[in-house]
Amino acid sequence: MFKRTKVTDGTATGQGPDAENWDGKEVGFRKKSKVPGVMITQYIEKLPEGKSHPDFTRKPIALTIQEGKFAFFKAIVTGDPKPTVVWSRNNGDVSDPARYQSKYDPNSNEHTFEMPHVKPDQADTYKCFAKNEYGQAMVTVVLNVIEVGFKMTKAPQQQAEVANCNFKKVLKRRSKVVPKAEEPEKKEGEIDPKFWELLMSADKKDYERICAEFGVTDFRWMLKKLNEMKREREEEQAEFVKNLSDLKPIHINADGTASFELEFDLLDPSSSIYLYKDGEMIPYTKELGDKMKHCLRKVGRKYIFSMRDLMPEDAGFYQLDVEDVNMFSTDFKMVDFLVKIQEVKAMEREDAVFECVISAPLSKLMWFGKNMPLEQGDKYDIEVSEDKLIHRLVVKDCMVVDKGIYAACAGIKSCNAWLVVEADKGAPKGKKTARKTTRAGGSGTDLQKVAQEQQQILDKEREERKEKIKAAREAAAEAAAAEEPEKTADSGAGKDKGAAVKVERIDKTSVAATTTVAGDSGSGHSAGKASGGAKQDGSHADAGGGHSAGKASGGARKDGSIADAGGGHSAGKASGGAKQDGSHADAGGGHSAGKASGGAKQDGSPADAGGGHSAGKASGGAKQDGSHADAGGGHSAGKASGGAKQDGSHADAGGGHSAGKASGGAKQDGSHADAGGGHSAGKASGGAKQDGSHADAGGGHSAGKASGGAKQDGSHADAGGGHSAGKASGGAKQDGSHADAGGGHSAGKASGGAKQDGSHADAGGHSAEEASGGSRQDGSLADAGGGHSAGKASGGAKQDGSLADAGGGHSAEEASGGARQDEPLADAGGEPGITSGLSDIHAIRGQPAELTVKMNTDCDGAWFKDGEPLKSGGGISITKDANIHKLTIHSCRDTDSGLLRFVSGDLSTEGRITVGDVPEFDEDDLHKFSKPVIVRVGQNAAFKMPFQPQESLTVSWFKDGTELKDGGGVKIVREPNHSRLLLRDCLRSDSGEIKIQLKNPFGAVEATSQLIVLDRPGPPEGPVETVETTSSVIEIKWNPPKDDGGSAVTNYIIERQERGHSLWTKLGDVSAEKTSFRDRNVTHGKKYSYRIYAENPQGLSDSLETADSIMAGIMILSGPPGKPKVVSTSKTCINLTWTPPEDDKGVPIIGYQVEKRKKDTNQWLALNAINEPIEDVNYAVKDVTEGAEYEFRVSAINESGAGDASPPSAMACAKNPNMRPCFKDPEDFLVVRAGNSVRVKISYEAEPPPHITWLKDDEPIAPWINVINTEGMSQLVIPSSKRSDSAIYTIKAKNSVGEAFFDVEVRVTDEPKCPGPVELEQTVYGKVAVSWVPSPDQELDDRLYYVVSQHDSNTRMWKTVADRLFANTYTAHNILPGIEYHFRVYAKNDMGLSDPSQSPTWGANSNRVPISSNGVSSMEISFERPPSILVPLKVHTPPKGYQLYMTCAVRGCPTPNVSWYLNNTCINSDKNYYITNSCGVCSMYILRVRENDGGEYRVVAVNSLGKAECSTKLTVRD
User: Fold this and answer.
1) The pTM is what?
2) According to the model, what pLDDT value does residue 1361 have?
3) In angstroms, rounded to a whole number, what is the distance separating the alpha carbons of residues 1378 and 867?
4) Is residue 667 a contact partner of residue 651, using CB atoms and an 8 Å limit?
């Protein structure tokens, strides 16, 4: 569905939508404009018919203008509906009408943006937006303003602009490297993103240097991660470019500019190219490269980025992106000179040395001598130390001309010095002195020491980076290790989380109801707060310090003193007990998740609490004399409570550390035992006191609720801190005093007992069971032992007030102190109180819901909804079971939502119930979504799921159980009624389960689909096994591919290559079930390679190829053939023959291989390859050198290869044998047009070379006929032939062996002249005799004949009726009356047809009476004229021995006779000159110009009517 890049991706200003005109919510599809540089965004995928998005037909042109002039931009836009055009600029607004004016001309459809009296501050990048309801088009244009004169306010203004501008709003980067100003605080040891960007653009040889620079030492990890990143980057780059190559990092050029280069081809020529420096986009230009600092030029496929006017601030990290994909990254560093080069004075022939030290390693400096770049060579040596800090230039063999200024350049930094060369005065004059072996110059300082110091500084920086990385990894490992025990600790504050249930519908259970009274905040040791409790005298009990993520604070006292907080080492709580005199009870350190508290003494001395080292709690009891009764630590899931005292002193409850309940016991005087902190998800509440005071409730540290109770006087009871999901609440007091709630640390419940005197009894609620101390009549404390498991431990009651200690309940049993006979066991008497109240719940429509309130005594209560009383009935049931009150809604409806309140006497608790539904999917949509989405590799996968709009609805997408986040290749769109997921450019690894989850407070629902990404299968698994190999069969076997590409493999394709051949031949294919193949078309002894492809509907896999060639059968080689014999020899060829081998070993011979060896050499050279055997038993060796001697040997070739070689032949010399002359394929007849040259070529063979003689009709040839003899050929040349040259020419070749003759008939002719007049005569009916006068050429040419054509008035076409007539008559047949006939007669010879002779008309009109002309006679036209020269001769000055053409043009009628004269001597018959006359063009040719050919040349043309001539001079040069 999504096929284009979304514009909502980050773009730079001027390269994407404007922030003011784009809301970022619309999904855009990028379209291509016909005008380069225009970015078009279409809002909908398919446009309505007749509508179109905006586009530019003319875009604004970049402008450079002088300050004060009139500047304007013009643009023409199209689109339906008509677009709205808006102009803006990058660094400022255009709202000032005095400076910016937008106009529109409806006649020309031009939008104009004008800036009268332009000023320098208006130089900027401007943007023009054209927008309608279907899309938006945007184009950028640069305005450069040339300032006039110096402005005093210029510098302050620029500084103010920089200070006020927020450049990140101006440039919306896409660079992965964040600018320094916006870099988040880097974690210790974190690797700079530049490291990976540099590696992906660097050569492998630079990896070590880059790793050392960034402090990376784990090269294996680096290479693994780099390869993964490179694969991802190459896939991204393939969308926009291809053939990315020749990446050259940035460097300084000789002209002082810096540049980097790369080559690539854009898939879409309109793709945008962006440049970044340190993550910020930099402007560049293509047209104004000489006026802007940065320029990007394109030369063929090469893109060259250059930067001029270099400054130190130009150093940085440069990147080039195409669209939003990085193509190249390079780092531009500035180095400085620690030691500069010094002046050198050298003597002649001595070497001069310039040395310098730089601040950072650099592989090469640029050296200049007298403004010319210097390179390594014979004159100069350029040396670099191993650490690349010391650089040297050695000027070898100094001469006086070498003196001048020499410079070293490192970026924009440079240093220079003079080289002074002094002449050697002691050298003898006129002689060159010997070169000296000494060197002059040097810096004069210890360069090695300076370089070592600098290297130490660099090494120290690298080591610091390495240590930071190492420390960061160790810290991460420790943090991961620390998280593990926290997760497993029983008392971890709020560590339990609800597990996500992977079902289609997830109902959410209601949370237990709690009271609405609020108590003081207890301690929260995970992410919460720890505080001390309240004392009767106003002093505050110390709170243990939360050393993890919690907070520890001291309590408040009436006298204003602060209670110190003890150290809590983990997630536990430490609190001090309460004293009557306001003194402080120190709390021991809670080392884990437990709680330690001190008891209360009447004399104010502190009662120390033991340290709770695990998840338990230790609390001290209260004694009448103020001494402290220590409470043992409750280590497991038990419950600890304090006993009741008659005097109202405090009975502390031991700590219950897990998910149980801790409560304070009831005292006879009505005071309540304080409840300690419940550490998990339970509830801690304070008990009720008779005097109205409330017992402190410990803080609920987990998932509960903390609330303060209600007081009768209207004051509010503070609630302890709910640190995780637990609940802590304070009780209500009658006198309006405040009951503090302690920290609830677990999932249990902690409550304090009631005291008669209103004093506070602390209860520590640390477990899931109950541990309680017994009650004493004298008020002394019955200590409760630590509840170590899930049992219950309680102390017995003594009449004399002594303590009956209860042993620790270590299992699930109960350990209790016995009751003494002199005093019955004290019970927990007191006023009624709510031990478990109401809380807000969410109920599912149509499902039952239950609300429960627990009291500490059996008492009555009433239920109210929104202030109205409730009774059983109407789908509601109200029940009471002892001290438990329940309200049950059998089927929840919308009307059941509201505020529910339970009231019992003066106590109340309330909670809100909200009725709703779990999110649902439509069945049809769910069925449609469940169908798998199948795409090909590289395509986009889209998922859409509609749903009903709801409040508080959270939509999440998951892939294989991992939640997907918007960004990168994932795009998630959330609308009120649906959600869409787009996965761009899917890979095969993206296949898996796709799940959408809708979640609200009532539950969650999920829908699952599958994404299948289809691809070509992977290659078959190797190696290829050879099952069988014989002389006729090779069988191979392989394994199926590991990855079938998402669709089953249909078949395998097998190809074969014979060894020594480059062609792969397809043998066939086999079904997917079969993973073997038998090749029956093999030749014994030959070797073959095989490759196998797996095929599925998506295409072919990569091939699996055999590692080595497989030979058919075993190798059997033939025996040696017979000794070769030399049949004949020549200077170019030696013919051999031999006999087949006597023993071919039973294997057929397919051919032979011949080898040669030159005399006096040891190397045998093969004349043919083994795969090109000689099939016959003879061979002509043509690769020989004339006069050289050779010997030969032969090997027989069978299917296994070449066998043993034969004995060598006798030596044979490459030379011709004596032979009589013989002619090779000569032509015996030749026809030449008159005027053309005649060339008769005869090839011959003879040894020794013969003497050649030519004869014409058995007579010697004329001297002007040229004979050219070369080796093996003789050529007779007649330059300008005449009819008289027709004859039989005889060539005679004679040598010492014999002679030979051959005759060649040469016929010189021309196109024949036309025949004479044609006469017609009828002899019989239907026949007409046609006769004509012979052609004048008939007597001269015995090969001349005639052709007759006929034309009649019916067909009106000429057709040949007679051919090759050697007579002068022809009888025409089928001549019909009433039809006109015409005849034409042609003469024809070897040169062609003559002009026709026309016959008179025969037929209907032949007897017509001729019409008299009435005496009017016609005038005859004459074409005769005297000769005239049309083109005269030209002056020539040829060199001696060169050829020469001399021409002129002559006209006249009749045709004039042309004569050539040299110095008034006719040369027409001179054989040194070849003279022709063709159609009035007279030519003279001299083959080789001689000295005596110079002089005056004259052409004379004469006919019967007159004479014409022209002349010229010929000068022969040496």
Assistant:
1) 0.31
2) 92
3) 135
4) yes
